[in-house]
Write a structure and sequence with these properties.
Elements lengths: L10 H4 L1 H65 L2 H20 L8 H20 L2 E4 L11 E8 L8 E6 L1 E4 L2 E4 L1 E7 L3
Parallel strand pairs: 2-6
Antiparallel strand pairs: 1-4, 3-6, 4-5
Helix pairs in contact: 3-4
Protein name: Protein GrpE
Keywords: Chaperone, Coiled coil, Cytoplasm, Stress response
Subcellular location: Cytoplasm
């Protein structure tokens, strides 16, 4: 038989060491692909874990904010529950003050009435003060637009500009919140 006619032998049989190396290479590349897949899955899991951790922190912060808001709402509800009731009582004080301003203080016959009305008004103001209602009487003070409502502006050389010269109706606060502004007259510089 000529060399050309010889049956060709498989390459594997000719070089057994190369065959083992190829098997090792195939096995290594298979292990490397498994490791690469595992590393990819690990990175994906770590990313999901980080996302879940961030989501948990956001939910926890939102729950804390909701708890804080609810607590503030309850506190405000307790603090200002009497706002409408107190506002409805203010005309009573106004009427007592008007009665005192119209009574002739010189007449001895009205001395007992004056004393009774003054004691009633003092008792009333002390009682509402226990619940946080405070009277605002700004006569002679600088005008404060957050607490006063200017009803008139008059030139005056006696007091500094923007000073409350007279009070038409006293204002009131409930626990630091304005219940009703004081209606006042304000001075301005003379022309």
């Amino acid at each position: 038989m000529t060399e050309q006619n010889k049956p060709s032998e498989p390459v594997e049989e000719l070089n057994p060491a190369a065959s083992d190396a190829n098997a090792d290479t195939v096995e290594l590349s298979s292990e490397q692909s498994i490791i690469a897949k595992l590393e990819e899955e690990l990175a994906k899991s770590q990313s999901q874990l980080a996302d879940q951790h961030e989501l948990m922190l956001r939910i926890k912060a939102e729950a804390e904010n909701a708890r804080r808001r609810a607590s503030l709402d309850v506190e405000k509800a307790h603090k200002f529950a009497l706002e409408k009731f107190a506002g409805d009582l203010l005309p009573v004080v106004d009427n007592l003050e008007r009665a005192l301003s119209f009574i002739n203080r010189e007449d001895e016959a009205f001395k007992g009435v004056i004393e009774g009305v003054e004691l009633t008004m003092k008792s009333f103001l002390d009682t509402v003060a226990k619940y946080g209602v405070v009277q605002i009487d700004p006569a002679g003070q600088p005008f404060n637009p957050e607490q006063h409502q200017a009803m008139s502006i008059q030139p005056s050389a006696d007091v500094a500009p923007n000073t409350v010269t007279f009070v038409m109706q006293k204002g009131y606060e409930l626990n630091g919140r304005l219940l009703r502004p004081a209606m006042v007259g304000v001075s301005k510089a003379p022309e």
